[in-house]
Amino acid sequence: MLAALESAPDAIFCLVADVAEPLWANARARLLEVGRNGLPEVSGRPVADLVDTALRSGQAEAAHGNLGQGGPLATVTARPMTVDGRAGALVIVEALATDDVHRAQLSLLPPSLPMLPDVCLSGSYHQASDLSVAGGDWYDAVSLGKGRLALVVGDAVGHGVPAAGAMSRLRGAMRSTLLRDSEPAGVVAALDAFAAQMDDVEGTSVFYGVLDAASGRLAYSAAGHPAPLVVLPDGSTSFLTVTPRPPLGSLPGAQATVHEAALPQGATLVLFSNGALAGTGIAPADALDRLGQVAREVLEAPGALDVETAVGLAAAIAEGVQRPHGWLDDVAVLVAHRRATAQESLRMDQLAVPSALPGVRRRLNAWLTGLGMGEQDRVGVMVAVGEACANAVEHAYRGSEPGPMSVVAQVDVDGVLTVTVRDDGTWRPPDRDPGDRGRGLLIMRQLVDGVTLEEDGGTTVTLSFRLRRTPEEDLDQRRLPDNADVVVDRNGERPVVRARGPVDATAAEQLRIRMLEASHGGASPMELDLAGVSLFSSAAVRVVLAMARIARDETWRLVVRAPEGGVTRHVLEISGLDGLVDLR
User: Fold this and answer.
1) Would you report the helix, strand and coil content of the chain in percent, each value rounded to 5?
2) Is 0.90 surpassed by the pTM of this model?
3) Domain count for the chain
């Protein structure tokens, strides 16, 4: 038993009353930072005090918080016991995963932000250095159509995973409300009524605004939340006017005053949670001044507003207000920069010959990069456009002299990218079973949101894709530490895509790409091996469902290997996939 206790994952101390130092400590306990009495502190409270309370009451006593100064989060339990006939105690320090709250919070924040031609958005969430006070801050941005954006930032009551859960429910309620009414008065009233019915949401602060990207008009309201900062093109700063109102649910029916402001081109709106102002001994006015100074310095840095780097604005501002000893509270920042100029559309007129394709790819890549697209989305669009151009080169003018081919790319006010590839030739329907060729349309449909084909004195292929961008500062944090491994094994009769580890939303996208690669865009059979998967997310289920439907349409059946009795097999079965795939 002593050997088992020595190697236990939790820190264990054995103490005897009236003896200053612990009688015994296991290997994990000997690694902890301890005080004069040989015991650690939890959130500033000596564990020795916890032991004294347990000895007096005769009952186990527990405390929850950070070990030492901002150390890992832990639960400390002191249990009275008899040691060699004397009163004593067993102290167990159960260290919690330091990023559990952070993972929960990040998984509930928007995975991406809309990309509009007139507005650059940047979002960032940073966890409090003391994990016992972390959780609950959030931001969101929703495209409402016609160039309008809903911008919101809030701070849920409480800390830890429960606060993250409350934040998630409130964010869900907000998005549901937007389907019926997106105006500030209606949204705040709906959230107020929702919070009044939910004890853990009551008292949440929120700022909500609707920005017209083209005109710069901003209509907004707030409940118990600080006013956002505006940084004008000349570097001057001010805070929006906000009428004080109680937090959500604390005074149901309280009026939410709606204000309006105009953001000129080149202006930047900075929404932030209360954590950006938190700081021992700093007056609120001084904290606001400091935030304004930090934001101004970040925006004036060389290249800060370039499309490639502007995604990091929110993180830079949050890091700028960090105190030397860390963030005293969670910090959520959402930045909306109104661009002075929008990128022009792209038009390329070429002769439909193979030698034209490299030039089309180079110019399209440069133009998409100028939009600020991430590499994964950019490559997907380029491959889809390349397939459309290759079809025109190979088929449009077969049996005749090559003719014209045009490629036009543009983005509408809501951030929907449209690329049209037009030729004046004759469309030739693909053979029913052309092998690995003739599957261009199928590949295109897997890489972009929409594909249409029109024949009218030639052929026009139109590709559409809604632009979005994942905050770069969160990319690594959103992944689980033990990242999934997704590979294509071509050693057998047919390709096998093997996945191992946790297949979360990020890994699900890798899974989709590998399955398309292995099946030549769905044209030929392949298998999926999930035997080594430890987590299979809903995003992964959607990927497998999409490939199963493609396989069905292409007259082959997807084989999925998932052990019976395993969680992955159970997820697949309850999702109804066992009727679309061969589960083995």
Assistant:
1) 35, 30, 35
2) no
3) 4
